[in-house]
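Revision sheet: structure tokens.
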Amino acid sequence: MSIRLVLIDGHTLIRYGLRCLAEREQDIEVLGEAGGADGAAELVARLGPDVVTVDVALPDADGLGLARDLRGRFEGLGIVVLTSAGADEVLFRALDAGVSAFVSKTAPVEEVLGAIRHAAVAASSFTAAGLADALARRRDGTDRLALSPREREVLSLLQDGLSVPAIARTMYVSQSTAKTYVGRLYEKLGASSRAQALMTALQLGLIQYQPAPESRTGGGGRTATVTPVAPTRNLAGLR
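Predicted:
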């Protein structure tokens, strides 16, 4: 049986190229295509493909957000993410979104076709040509940082939104000492602000994303909020 394929990409030329590429193969049939996220889920539901290709950078939405939504709605759907940005961060976001394969748009034709065929038979697994190297770089980065227990505590308190005086009180140290701890942490993370430090720590797997507890709205409903993190320009501005 042929692999039934749907293409989702904002670039007409890319969709045309993928269609021509797929239709040359006897085991792949292109059912339809979409130029963005709008209506994409409905198209998938109507056509019932085995595999869908999704561009990371759609014109009307985040492609990985669409991929995550498709995974939630269609458990057995093979999802191949195509990207022109091969950064490790994007690869790990794709892995977290539950896609089946992650492929660069500059990859050889055989690699793109292989990803589609992999997704058709192993939708719940993940394959990417650079995954092993990306994992090694993440491990090397984490090992190189070698945060001390104190620095890990400071990182956790920064994630909770505490100011330097609050960190000092929590750790029972002077504000000067707390500022020194924060400064050392920033230096290890290559950061110049709280927001930058937290983003780097997230990318390295040193901390996990934590939404704030739900709070009641004025109308009696409930809404999820995220603790705001105020960026600081430099250590002199910490307070």
